[in-house]
Structures are given as C-alpha cells and as structure tokens.
Design brief:
Strand order of the largest sheet of chain B: 7-6-5-4-3-2-1-8-9-12
Largest sheet of chain A: none
Strand content of chain B: 5-15%
Shape of chain A: globular
Number of helices of chain A: 6
Structural class of chain A: mainly alpha
Radius of gyration of chain B: 21 Å
Order of helices and strands of chain B: EHEHEHEHHEHHEHEHEEEEEHHHH
Largest sheet of chain B: 10 strands, mixed
Number of strands of chain A: 0
Distance between the termini of chain B: 40 Å
Largest interface: A-B, 71 and 91 residues
Structural class of chain B: alpha/beta
Radius of gyration of chain A: 17 Å
Oligomer: heterodimer
Strand content of chain A: under 5%
Shape of chain B: globular
Distance between the termini of chain A: 43 Å
Amino acid sequence: MSLQKKYTKILSGILPVGVVGASLLLGSTVPSAAKEHPASSQPSAADRDAVSQKLAAIREAVSAAADPANNDAETRDGNLHLAWGNWWNNWGWGGWGRPWGGWGWPNWNNWRNWNNWNNWWRNW
Amino acid sequence: MPKIELLVIQPTPFCNIDCRYCYLPNRNAKAVVAPATLANLFTQVFASGWLEDSLSVVWHAGEPMVVPIGFYRDAFQLIDRAKPRELTVTHSFQTNGTLIDDAWCEFFAEAHVNLGVSIDGPKLFHDRNRRTRSGHGTFDKTIAGIRRLRRHNVTFHVISVLSAVSMAAPREMFDFYVEEGIERVCFNVEESEGDHVSQSFADSDVEGAYYRFLGEFWRLSSAMPGKIKFIREVEHALQQVIRPKDAPFSNQLVEPFAITSMDWAGNISTFSPELLGLKNAQYGDFLLGNINHDALVEMPQRGNLARMLKDIQAGVAMCRERCEYFSVCGGGEPVNKLAENGSFVSTETTYCRVTKMRATDLVLDALERVQQSPSGRTGPSLPFEMSVRV
C-alpha cells in the first residue's frame, strides 16, 4: 500500500470525529504508564529518515480529501470529502468558536512566549 | 512589503521577580515607555501599509503588571483612536500573575485582554526557579492570582517552563492543572537564550524526556476529556502535520517585521523578540532604529537588517535542505540558533529537536498506532462516550 493510501485510510477514521475528537482519539493511543513501556515511549528513531515522506503523504491525503473533483475509491468510499469539509469548518477561522483562535492557517504562531488567541473575542 | 502580524511592546524592562532562567538583561531597571513613544509607534505602524486586517499586540519582556492599570487604559484608548476603522487590534499580556487583584481582573474583562500566566506547575516545581530577588518562591502569589482570575471568570492560559524534574512528572503536572481549574496549557522548555545556559539542555535525554512527558500528558487529557481543553504543543503539532499540501505556511520568526518588537525606549527589532535586548560580538546589537528618531518604513533598508536577513535566510536554506522536519517548522528560531550554535547560519538546535521534532514524532507515532488498531474497522473509534459535532 502506498503511503498516501495508508494515510487516506487513517484519516478516514479521524476526520469524521472533528478536531477535538481527533486530538482525543490520537492522544488515547499513547501507551499508558510510560515507565513500563520504555520502547514505545521513545521517539521512533528507526523511522526518522522517512519523516518528510510521511508528512508529504499525509498532506497529499488531506488535499485529496479536500478536493471535490477527486473521485477515487478511497475518498469516495470513506465519504472523506464530507468529513474534511466538517473538519475544515471546525478548524478554520470563525468555524467552531474555539477561543484560542482555532487551527486556522496561516496564523500559527512560532514564538513560544505568546499563545495565538487571535479570534478569541470574535468566537467566544 | 513587510506584513506586521505581531507587535511585542516592552512597557517596562522591570520585573518584580527574578527567575533563575530569565534571559532579560535589564530586569532591574524601572523605566516605563513614554506615551509619546507609544504614539510614535502606533502612528507609524498604522500609516506603514504593513498591516492586513488584524494586529496582535503583546505587552511583555518585563512584567507588564508593574505598570499601573491607568497606563494601559490610556494606551489602549490612544491605539483605538489612531487605528484604521477596519483594523482589529487585540491585546495580550504575559504575566507572572503575582500582582493580579480585583481591579486587574475587571480591567482584563473590560478591555478583552488575552491573558497568559506563567506558572511552572505545583509549588515544588515552580519555586525551584521562579523566585523573588531575596530567593523566596513566588508560587503562593501566582496561584492566588490564578484563583482570583477564575473567581472573576477571566479566561486565561498558562505557560509552564518545563525542567528536567517536571518533565519526569507528567501526572503531577496534570493533576495540578485539573485541581486548579487550569484548562489551557502551553509548555516551554528551559532553553539557552542570551546569557542563560539551559540546565535541561545539558541533559543527554532531554528529547526523550520531553517526548514522554508530552505523550503522557496528552494521554491523560484524552482519558479525562473536558479537563484540559487545549495543549498548545499538541494542537500546533496536529495543525502542522494534518494540513493540505498547498496550505499557506510561514515562520514569522524569519520574516522581517512579521514580529516587530519595541523596547521601553522606542528601539525597534524584528525576528525573535528576544533579540531586542541582546548584544553579540558578531552583530553588536540587533536594533534597527528608534521609533522616536527614525522612520519605521525606512528600517528595511538598514544595513544591519540586510546582514541579519542574509544570515537568517542562509540558515533557513540549510534547514530546508537538510532537515526532515522543515515543513512543520519553516527554519527554526534565529535566537536559539545564535545562542546554541553561535550563528544564524546554522540548522538544528536542541530547542528545535525537543519542541518541534519530538512533538511531530508524537503525532506521527499516534497516527501509526491508529493504523495498527486491531478493531478491523475502517478507522479508529473513540474509547469513551462523547458528543462530537461533525
């Protein structure tokens, strides 16, 4: 299976639960009691050389999900277009009313001494 | 043409406490920015043509609350009168929280100030580093301020600086936030900046410690939904990983004037705000001029800006060429490159390995585990009852 297909499959299970649901879902996969699972609590160094390919494949999969003209089997069967639309609406500006400014692009801030609450009062 | 997105203003260099890891060089000085300097700044910023539809103003780089409320009432009024009608200006404070009283709470609510409080977790962790000049811990005053904010229903987030000790205690950190009703958390790592050399970064396993801390904190938050509503590092990592391939992407820290910083005296700097107060053998200082004597719109032509930009861009190009994580980071933090590597023309820092790479790994690894779910379903399922709007 190509990396893009793999991530299309993964995203088809994540996008429908929305932004908050996705964060909760992914967080719930972290192994508990890290001290008892030292191997699984370490960064996956063995895969380090594939990080940029993974990131590119994820974004290809997201773009395919976001593209209404894309009619391939994975996105059609998983109803991924609809899921992405809901995700995007919740994520983008003015969508869900997340008080810390949502996850809208391109206003992600890099400076760690400040937290980006741009839309706080508009959405609250 | 530059685009200013964030304006960092130092109302005073003074801080009423003396944290062990602080990088601010003049925190004993009690100077306060003059109203005329603020007027010069905002008149020039609003006339520059460098703004889009919104501007964030952060009052920081000293403790903003040692300056009286009346100062900010006057300043906000001045800004409001001078700003273009269609421009939205939002104000943010980053404070140590020790001076929060009822009057400040009322002001924060009335002026719609976005508030960040610096607290490093439970007293045991906080008081190790966040102390008064006489060496006493500041936890009791900070937590009293946070409790007062909650009584007044003022929404806030906290920024906690992680040390080796607190990174080893995610459960204690999580329980503390939940017990105090703190719902929005941001984690910084004690880092090398300016004259401060990080103890945490000297730890050979700081990357693993951070990965384990953030992972466990994320797991605990997911197991008890609704308690911690926002973990900045996780949300940012998710945002940077799960996005369309053509989504706009930028690193404000390497774009000239995207972050514009002004000290109390009117000196202007850009890129990393920490550069405002630093001096360096190679560059001297990082100041582009003074707003009281120089025209903001002429500062892009300054020779020292051209030199900094050339070096910063060279460093970004090296990151783009060599780093697997470039697409989530955009070329790193100039001030960390300078502090850790001695030059803007460099790539990896411990800071970026810890906060960017390991946070990205955490999200990528979580996606892998979703794939490995034995449920046999098309995708994963939520392990608990919750209502999600789709």
